[in-house]
Amino acid sequence: MDWGALHTILGGVNKHSTSIGKIWLTVLFIFRIMILVVAAERVWGDEQDDFICNTLQPGCKNVCYDHFFPISHIRLWALQLIFVSTPALLVAMHVAYRRHEKKRQFRKGDQKCEFKDIEEIRKQRFRIEGSLWWTYTSSIFFRLIFEAVFMYAFYFMYDGFRMPRLMKCNAWPCPNTVDCFVSRPTEKTVFTIFMIAVSSICILLNVAELCYLLTKFFLRRSKKAGNQKHHPNHENKEETKQNEMNELISDSCQNTVIGFSS
Amino acid sequence: MSWGFLRDLLSGVNKYSTGIGRIWVAVVFIFRLLVYIVVAENIWKHEHDEFECNTRQPGCENVCFDHFFPVSHIRLWALQLIMVSTPSLLVVFHVAYRENRETHHNQKLYKSPRKIDGGLLCTYLISLILKTGFEIVFLVLFYKLYNGFKVPRLVKCDVRPCPDTVDCYISKATEKMIFLHFLVATSCLCIVLNLSELSYLIFKYSLKCYLKRYIKEHQ
């Protein structure tokens, strides 16, 4: 059980995302989770062992480390990634619920059901409309909130995104004021700025996706209203064309992401 | 043999659960198991090495650490995760028993072996009660062993062979306290989910029973 398991869970959601959603997922896995696991964990690995204070007073190092790092960067990032990935599960649950309903209809022998067998239902890709649209949009909204909260918590806890080389500590039992030296401060600053930058890109992608969904929603509504007035049959042809275009875009993106995941 | 086993067990359980049960599995997977493995284990990794006492007396640090941490937080956490996931096995076994019976007698004995009714409902309710029970027991254990859910920076130790009273310092005290609170919060969330599922199932099946009887009486 590790990040790989999260990747498996979220991979399923990929099929039902928009193109921007798929880009977001790719950025999340490659530039955040993978960087965290292969690079950042090594940089922060020896953080307490190599945190050195200029004193022989036992306990001073422990207390100063605890004072300056109430919660380590690496742990905050891991929590941020877990919380930010979780709203996608809402979409996965909604899709699973819809599939379950369709399977139930199919088993009852409902004439309305257009599928030939259970396998087709399992492989079907749902369009983001109706209640699924609301679930999807809420999940993006929660993602944005979590990202912003964690970025703020980071900024608030560490007074900016720089890691200083030297920290002055006067917590008891340290005698007077003691100089404490952080290990690898420059490397840590570089990775911190990198992670913040990628977080910001993810926030922008989420905002773009939200705007795209809202625009699509309002366009669809105004089209429906317009069509109902003038051409009751015309909307089907237009929608079919749009469907085909969407399928083409999403399939090409899916191929890119499948290539990455395999 | 590792946490992957627990993950496979929980995935299996997911198939036979109600909607709330699936949310419970997701919460345990992501907010408890995943957080434990990728975050918490690293915080408590060197807790003994980093535990420092203000003395040169050999053996004092060992004795004080043992006195203040009879069972480490991280081990209690792991035990809690295992104990809380295991009652779901009862449901898995019961479904397997039902399917076995159908194959053995070569006829359809149940409407659907996986549907939660009759004996399977009892098993499901028992597993929910056990899960909730284990959660509460472990929370109480944490509270009693560590005097609340605090992790102090400094503890005063006067166990032999330490001379008089010695100051001992716990490493990463604040971080440990934050994650302990996180553990408590997720435990409470799981208790709430279990109790909701329990009430939902009891309500649903009592209503069903009552309606059946009402229809029978009026026929």
UniProtKB/TrEMBL annotation, chain A:
<dbReference type="InterPro" id="IPR013092">
    <property type="entry name" value="Connexin_N"/>
</dbReference>
<feature type="domain" description="Connexin cysteine-rich">
    <location>
        <begin position="146"/>
        <end position="213"/>
    </location>
</feature>
<keyword id="KW-0303">Gap junction</keyword>
<keyword id="KW-0472">Membrane</keyword>
<dbReference type="InterPro" id="IPR017990">
    <property type="entry name" value="Connexin_CS"/>
</dbReference>
<feature type="transmembrane region" description="Helical">
    <location>
        <begin position="132"/>
        <end position="158"/>
    </location>
</feature>
<feature type="domain" description="Connexin N-terminal">
    <location>
        <begin position="42"/>
        <end position="75"/>
    </location>
</feature>
<feature type="transmembrane region" description="Helical">
    <location>
        <begin position="77"/>
        <end position="97"/>
    </location>
</feature>
<comment type="subunit">
    <text>A connexon is composed of a hexamer of connexins.</text>
</comment>
<keyword id="KW-1009">Hearing</keyword>
<dbReference type="InterPro" id="IPR000500">
    <property type="entry name" value="Connexin"/>
</dbReference>
<keyword id="KW-0965">Cell junction</keyword>
<dbReference type="GO" id="GO:0005922">
    <property type="term" value="C:connexin complex"/>
</dbReference>
<dbReference type="GO" id="GO:0007267">
    <property type="term" value="P:cell-cell signaling"/>
</dbReference>
<protein>
    <recommendedName>
        <fullName>Gap junction protein</fullName>
    </recommendedName>
</protein>
<keyword id="KW-1003">Cell membrane</keyword>
<comment type="similarity">
    <text>Belongs to the connexin family.</text>
</comment>
<keyword id="KW-0812">Transmembrane</keyword>
<dbReference type="InterPro" id="IPR019570">
    <property type="entry name" value="Connexin_CCC"/>
</dbReference>
<dbReference type="GO" id="GO:1990349">
    <property type="term" value="P:gap junction-mediated intercellular transport"/>
</dbReference>
<dbReference type="GO" id="GO:0007605">
    <property type="term" value="P:sensory perception of sound"/>
</dbReference>
<dbReference type="GO" id="GO:0005243">
    <property type="term" value="F:gap junction channel activity"/>
</dbReference>
Automatic annotation (TrEMBL), chain B:
<dbReference type="InterPro" id="IPR013092">
    <property type="entry name" value="Connexin_N"/>
</dbReference>
<dbReference type="InterPro" id="IPR019570">
    <property type="entry name" value="Connexin_CCC"/>
</dbReference>
<feature type="transmembrane region" description="Helical">
    <location>
        <begin position="178"/>
        <end position="203"/>
    </location>
</feature>
<feature type="transmembrane region" description="Helical">
    <location>
        <begin position="77"/>
        <end position="97"/>
    </location>
</feature>
<keyword id="KW-0965">Cell junction</keyword>
<keyword id="KW-1003">Cell membrane</keyword>
<keyword id="KW-0472">Membrane</keyword>
<dbReference type="GO" id="GO:0005922">
    <property type="term" value="C:connexin complex"/>
</dbReference>
<dbReference type="GO" id="GO:0005243">
    <property type="term" value="F:gap junction channel activity"/>
</dbReference>
<feature type="domain" description="Connexin cysteine-rich">
    <location>
        <begin position="134"/>
        <end position="201"/>
    </location>
</feature>
<keyword id="KW-0812">Transmembrane</keyword>
<feature type="transmembrane region" description="Helical">
    <location>
        <begin position="118"/>
        <end position="143"/>
    </location>
</feature>
<dbReference type="InterPro" id="IPR000500">
    <property type="entry name" value="Connexin"/>
</dbReference>
<feature type="domain" description="Connexin N-terminal">
    <location>
        <begin position="42"/>
        <end position="75"/>
    </location>
</feature>
<dbReference type="InterPro" id="IPR038359">
    <property type="entry name" value="Connexin_N_sf"/>
</dbReference>
<protein>
    <submittedName>
        <fullName>CXB7 protein</fullName>
    </submittedName>
</protein>
<dbReference type="Pfam" id="PF00029">
    <property type="entry name" value="Connexin"/>
</dbReference>
<keyword id="KW-1133">Transmembrane helix</keyword>
<keyword id="KW-0303">Gap junction</keyword>
<dbReference type="GO" id="GO:0007267">
    <property type="term" value="P:cell-cell signaling"/>
</dbReference>
<feature type="transmembrane region" description="Helical">
    <location>
        <begin position="21"/>
        <end position="39"/>
    </location>
</feature>
<dbReference type="InterPro" id="IPR017990">
    <property type="entry name" value="Connexin_CS"/>
</dbReference>
